[in-house]
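Minutes, project check-in

Agenda point 3 was the complex the collaborators sent over. CS summarized: two entities, 884 residues total, and the question is how they sit relative to each other. Sequences were read into the notes so everyone works from the same version.
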Amino acid sequence: MNLRRRLLWALGLGWGWGATPALFAQHVPQERLLQPYVGVNAVQKGRVKLEIARLADNGFNVPLKVSVASPMTAQDHVRRLLLLSNRNPRPLMAAFEFGPSSDQVSIATRVRLGGSQTVYALAQTSDGLWWLDSAEVEVTESACLDQT
Amino acid sequence: MTTTTMKNQNQVALTRRQFVVSSALASGGLALGFHFPAAAQSNELSTLGGSEINAWVVVRPDDSCVIRIARAEMGQGTHTGLAQLVAEELECDWAKVSLQTFTPGQNLARKRVWRNMSTGGSRGIRESHEYVRQGGAAARIMLLQAAAAEWKVPVTELSVEKGVVTHAASGKATSYGKLASQASKLPAPDPKSIVLKHPKDWKILGKSPRRLDTAPKVNGSLKYGIDTVLPGMQYAAIKACPVFGGKLVSFDASKISSRRGIKAVVRVDDESVAVLADSFWRAKSALEVLPITWDFGPNGKESSATIAERLREGLTSTNNVFADIDQGNVAEAIQGAAKKIEAVYGTPFVSHACMEPMNCTARVTADRAEVWVPSQNAEASLAALAAVTGLPLEKCEAYNPPLGGGFGRRGGTQDYVRQAALIAKQFPGTPVKLIWTREEDMTHDYFRPIGQCRLVAGIDAKGDMVGLHLRVSGQSINAYVSPHNIIDGKDRRQLQGYWKDPGESQLGYTVPNLKVEYAMRNTHVPVGPWRGVNTNQNAIYLECFIDEVAKAAGKDPLTFRRNLIKNHPKHLGVLDAVADKGGWDKPLAPGMFRGIAQFMGYGSYTAAIAEVSIKGNDVKVHRVILATNCGHAVNPVQIASQIEGSVAYGMDSLQSESSVKDGRIVEKNFDTYPIARMYQMPKIESVIAPTYDFWGGVGEPTICVVAPAILNAIAAARGGKPVRMLPLKNEGLRLV
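CS then shared the predicted structure for the full assembly.
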């Protein structure tokens, strides 16, 4: 953040803080994005693998794949998998529920992305632990529409 | 003839003087190479026989420095400006600088070390000045460390000038070329530890070295995208359904397949058909006589009249309207005012009309796809190519030759890349060069959106504006290309230049009772950003109306503006600068009239004065004076050149219109779509007044004041009768 933006934020005039609506949606910090789902629990990197292209020429339907390494047994399985956006108006893009009868956790879908951002795949295993993978996606925008 | 005044306000404070940028300042001649990857063999970027100090800088044994540039060059001079930023901190010899561009695949392979390659929004310099200067500074630090290590002296005892490092105490000296290999092995300094130079210490920045790309343009050796030639290449001409939203039903290839050189006739997508031949002329000529059946759909009934009616409805409707500013009580203030002034302004769809029509050369095989495309955002081209071919990004590449004009057309909207890839996919391994005809280009643009604006103002007995109600009704760019940027149904982008928020495109006027609204009224015509985007139309609406209000108040347009703008010193600064340079207080020759306008956009402040005369219906613009405060002036002569281009572009928009009949665009070529001609161009005087406390854009914000300044001069010449509905021909006027 450059000095000008820092000053604006300090003055409470940064986009999104004024009386008028923001010109562009703001990025939600990771902690605040995950908190509603994981509460105070720790989130670990690992087990989840998110595959999504680094560039998308628009955000209308961006393909992605997610898999979670798990034996999928009654004792040790994935309970749920969430796809989160740190910039969309609705951060929860998709939620998948699993149980021990699910053979494996592997999904492929398309999501709509409201601009360049970080996409998160968040999984909870049957022991209650949370696992995370994330990826930055650049949604290329029209030329002169300022601040992508 | 053109003159430029550089008003360095830092220096003004110290020395109280202005200085004129002359050819003497534009010294530092360069014998420069230009390294453009025509077709990279791998994602590894060549070091051109030198040592890569960091991502931005390569130093060769002969002391020449190669500076890597991420942004696209389309005539705006950003390559030279960005190189100056790096070279300033590098402390190299500018006469030994050359440029190297790279591909988006190479950027991705290095985890986007060069960051954003998009060139638009007047962002080239204002967005990247910090990290590219840090890149230059980091390289300098590493080179000095290499010298210190070699001589076993503290780095603080070293000095450097023009790439020559000296140790005063021992009298030792060496040059960057000799240090490069060792420096390239050193760890990069912590970016937080880097202190960038103060503008007062600049040696290369703030000066106007010759542009790096002029000679090949003048001697014709520069290869644009449309010049791409590959072995075995075929040429494609394309025709999309003339009515936007219509569909391709069928075509009869047998009628043209026996013509000489014709290779194939192919369906490209739901709405377009292409002919492939061994020359463009044969492809184009065959396509012209190809029998095609279209399904025009419901949009075939749309016309300029139906669209204008939709916009008029939006001017007073209560449906789908939002207020971005609503302060005080506008209705009451205007009701109780001594005088009420009301007007409706309108601006048409306009085309980008790039000199080089849309084109893209593509080669697609089962496991690799490549395009050669003049693009304002090579990463967008790459992403579009990957999306169409279904190949991963790593198996795609986009080569980005210089652009013959972009103006926003060649940014995120990569329709020509998609088409070229869709055609080439049907002929695996054969390079296909798709070229749009001028007619295709002008009728299938992403047009500047059409708009109307209703303005109502109240003035009190003293002639002060006590209330202003402004409502824009028109098409939304975001709704067409980036709907995710519309938040809660409110597209603030269309009100660019009327924002209360400082920093970007802020309204300069303070009115106690103010309401600014937008009624989104979309049409079937594709729209997109057009150099300056919404500042152009919004400046016309407001700045022409302000003149109407000033006249009703019996006040001089400058005095009236100065009173309204006094809370915004930077807006006032350029207004005063232009008035001073333009001699607003001095009488004009008989028959001459002038107009003034100011606006803000893309982080910069601009103001203009135009001087015109009218003879019958012929309007002659004699002189335009344009002042800008873009924060930091990297290359004053280049800024002046941009201003001159902006005056031409602003004069285009007074004359041109893409009108709609039977759902399609009527104007197909320059016979019906006039743009500014040489004989129309006025004398242009630029005033560059940087305050060195922010970084603003230049290429776009300097356009928006041109048209309203000229329109206000025309109104003055007509005894105060304004031109409210563009283009000028609606009033029977033409530029001569």
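Noted in discussion: Chain B has 18 helices and 31 strands.
Follow-up: revisit at the next meeting once the mutant set is ready.
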